[in-house]
# Entry
Amino acid sequence: MRRLSVWVAILVVLVVGRARAADSAVVETKLPNGLRVVVDENHRTPVVSVTVRYGVGAANDPEDRNGLTELVLRMMVNKTEHVPENGFDDVIDRAGGRSGYDTNLDDTELYAEVPVSAIEKAFWLLSDQMGHFEGAVDDAAIQHGVAVLATERGQRVANSPMGLARELVPAELYPAGHPYRHAPRAGDATALATLKPAEVDAFFDKYFVPSNAVLVVSGDMKKDDVVALAKKWFGDIAPGAPQPNAFAPTTPLAHEIHLDIAARVERPVVEMTWVAPPEYAPGDAELDVVANVLHGYRIARLSWELITKLRVAGEIDVNEIPHRRGSIFRIMATATPKHTAQEVAAAIDSVLKLLETTEPPDSDDMEGSLASALMERTLSMEASLYRARQFAMWSIRAGTADYWQSDMHRYETDPTRVQQAAIRYLPLDKRVVVFVTPSATAPVSGQLLGRKVK
Amino acid sequence: MRRALVLVVVAVACGSPPKAKKPAVPSASVAPSASAAPSASVALDPHFREHEPPLAPQAAIPMPHLRDTRLPNGMRLLVASTGGGMFAMRLVFQGPASFPAERPAVARLMVKSLFGGTPSRDAHALRRVLEKRFAAWGTYTTSDAVMIDMTMPDDDVRPCIDVLSDVVQHSNLDTLTIGFELLQLVEQGQTARESPSVVGQHVLARALFGDGHGYARPSTILDGSGNVDRVEVERVSQEILDPQYATIVLAGAVERSVVEHVERSFGSWRMTSHTSATPVTMAAWKAAPRLVVVDRPGSVQSQITFGALAPQRSSPDFYAMELIDQLLGAHRTSRLTSAIVVRDAWSYAGGTHYDAYRSGGSFYWDSSVPADKTAAALQAIDKAFQELGRTPPSQAELDGWKETYVRHLPIAAETARETTHEISVIPVDELPADTLDKIEPSIRAVTPEAVRALAAARLAPDHTRAVVVGDWAKLKPALKALGWGPIEIRDLDGKLLKTEK
# Structure
C-alpha cells in the first residue's frame, strides 16, 4: 500500500490541531423544546454572528410543490407576526449588520452578522420567524413570494445559456422517487400558484420547528448570556416533531447517458456528473481529494493535460458537491476554438483512465490536493459569520457542531484509498455526459437535441 | 399543528399582530455583549416580542491604528497590529490605468504568472513553502492597482514573506506558466460574454468614460486573439513591479520582528522601471444618446445597468456619494431596491454600486428584470435619481443610513485579510494615512442638501446613461415610447452597430 508522505501526515496533524483548539471554545446545549444552541465565544472584535439552520431543503418539497421550502424562506424573510414587511433586512441594515438566507437540497438557513450592540435584534427577528410566522401568511403573501421565485428562476434558468442543462441532469442522475430528482426545478410558478395558506402552514409546522433546527452564535458574547437570550426569545416556541434523517439510498447509475444540447454558449461545453457518496460517508473526503488532484492547482492533472499540454480547454471546473442523500461529482470544461466538446471529453477520459489504472495519486498529488482542500476552509474560520454557519451546518448534517476535528480527520487518507474512490464512484460507463454546442438560434437557455443511453 | 390556524385568521381580520401563543418563559434580561458592557438586568416585559429591541450601548467604533514608514528604496509599509491568530499582507502596485500604452489584461496575466517559479525555487517549491504554513494567496487586478494577497496563521510567517519578496523581484515569468494563464484569461473573457451582467457593466463603462479610457478598458478580456509574448509580459512587470510604486500592507498579529523581516526581505529590491506611472485623466461628461441596447435575441429578461460618472475616492463628495448609494440601492431597504426588488418583485438581486477610483468613478443600478418590465424599471430608476436631485432626504432618513454605514465599519474589517483590504485604499487611491480615522466624522458631516446637490449634478437625465442587454426586437416599442431620444444599438463588446432615431 502506498503510504502517506511525512509532509501530508504533518499537514493533517497541524490542521487537526488548529481544529481542536477552535473546537474547545464551542459549547453546545439544548433548550427544553429541542432547539440546539451552540455558542462559539471569540472576543477579538465587537462583532457577533447569529444563524438559525433548519433541517429542511428542496428535497423535502412535495413532488407537486417544487420550491415550497424556498417560498417559505422568502416569506419568513419578508414578514412575520411582529416584524413588519421587509423587516428582517431593514432591522439588520439599520444596525449596521448584514443579513442573509440560503436554502439548498438539504437544509435552510437565515443569519445575521451585527455589531454586538445589536445582538438582541437578531434574536428578535430569527425567533419571530421560527415561532410567529403563520400570522403573516395569507394569499397575497404567497403570491408575492411566488412572483419573487418566478423572477429568480427567469434569471437563473430561462435567461442563462446553461439553464436547461442544469435542470435536466438531476432527473437523469437520480432514480424515480429520489427527492433530488425534481428539486432543481424550484421556483416553477405553475407548481406553487395554487398554494393556500393552510398548506404553507402545515409544511412550516412540520419542518421549521425547534426540534429540527440549531441556533449558533459566534463572536463577542459570553456563553451564559447567549443561553439566556436563547431561552428568552426561543424558549416559548413549541417544539414540533423531530424529523428523522430518512435518507434515500444512493443508487449508482446503470448506464452512461449522453445529452446533446444546443445553447447560446460562447464555446462548446462538456459536463460530466456522477452520483457520489452522501456527505461525511466513506468515500466523500476521498472524492474531494480526487477533485483537487484533477484541478486543485496549476499542475493538477486535468489542468496540466487539457490546458498546458493539449490546449483543448480554456476553463475547467471540478468539484464534489456534498449532499446528505447523495453527493454529485462534476467535471465541466469549455473547449478552445477549433476544438469540440467531444474532444475535450475524450481528453478528460484519458486522464481519468490513467488515474484509475496505472497512475494513482503520488505524494505531489496528495500534498497539493490536500492543501487545496483544507487550507482555505481553515483560514476562513477567522470570520465569525463563516464559523457560525459552519458550526450550524455540522450540527444539522453531522449531528454535532463539535465536528471540526472529525471533519479534518476524514482527510487522513492515502493514495490507494483515493484511487479506489475514483474507480468505484467515477466509472466512465456509468455517468451523465452533457455536450453543449454553441448555437445562435437556439433558445437562450438551450434546446435538447438528443438523448442516448449507451 | 403547532400554532392554531385560527390565530392567523384573527390576525388578518383584525389587522393587528397576534400575541404569542404561549407566554414567554421568564428569564433575566441578559448582558448582550462581552465588550460593550450593556444594560443591567431588568424585569422582562411580557410584551417584549411586540417591539423591536433597542440597541445596547456601543463602544467607540474601533479603527486599526496604522504605522506608516518607507524603505530607502521607496517602498511603503503600512502596518496595523490588530491581534488575533492570523496574519495578512497585501502588496499593492500601480494599476494598468497608469500605463496607458499597455494592455490592461497583460498586467493581470503578469501578476498571475509570478508564482510560476524563480531562479532559486520552481513553482512546486514555492507552493510547498506556502502550503506548509497554511498560507492562502491570490492576485487581483483593478484599473488602479495590481495586488497580491497572502493570509496565514501567525505561527511562522517569515518564509511566506520571503516567497512574496522572491516572486516580485525574481519571477522567471516562464513561457509555460504564461501560456497556461493566458489561455484561461482569454477563454474566461470569451465566456464572460454569456453573462448579461458582465456585458452590461462593461458597455456602461465604455459609454460613461469613453472608449480607450483607463477605466473603460477591461482587465479580464484581452483584445483580439490574445496574442501575448513573454517580452510584453516582462516589460509590463518591469514597469509595474517597482518598489517606488509599491506599498505592503500588514495586518493581524504583526510582531515587530515580522516588520523587520519585511524590511530586510524587500530592502534590497531595486527599481527596475524606466517608465513613470501616468496619472489617469479624469473623464469628462460627453453628450451622447442616453439609452444603449445590447441586442440579445430571445432573452426573457433584460439586464439594466443605469448610471453616471461619480466622484473619485479622494473627492470631498465621496462620502455624500456613499450615502446616495445607501439611500438608493446598496441595501434591500434602500429606496429603489425596496421598490423594484422587494415590493414589485421585478428582480431578486438588484442594487446600486458606487465604484470610486483614483481619478473618477461610476455609480449605477444593476439588475435583471422580466423583459416586459424593462421600460417601467428604467422609468422607476430615473424617477428615483431625479427625485433625489430635487428634494433632499429627510434628516431622519439620512441619519439612519449614516448609522448603518458607521456601525458596519467593524464588520468590514473583522479579519486580518479584510483589514488589509480596507487599508489598501490608502495607496491605491493616494489618500492620506489617516483616511480610516476620517471615515466616521466625514460621513456624519454630510448634510441632506449636500446629498441633493450631488444627486442633481450627477444623476440628472442629461448625465445618466442606461444600458439594456436584452431582446431589441421585443423591447423596441416600449423603449422608444420612453421618449429618451436616439437609441444606440451595440454588440456584446460595446461596439456601436447603429443608432435608432
User: Anything to note?
Assistant: Residues 139-158 of chain A form the longest helix (20 residues). Chain A touches chain B through 108 residues (CB under 8 Å). The domain at 24-234 of chain A is CATH 3.30.830.10 (Cytochrome Bc1 Complex; Chain A, domain 1). Residues 124 and 233 of chain A are 7 Å apart (CA to CA).
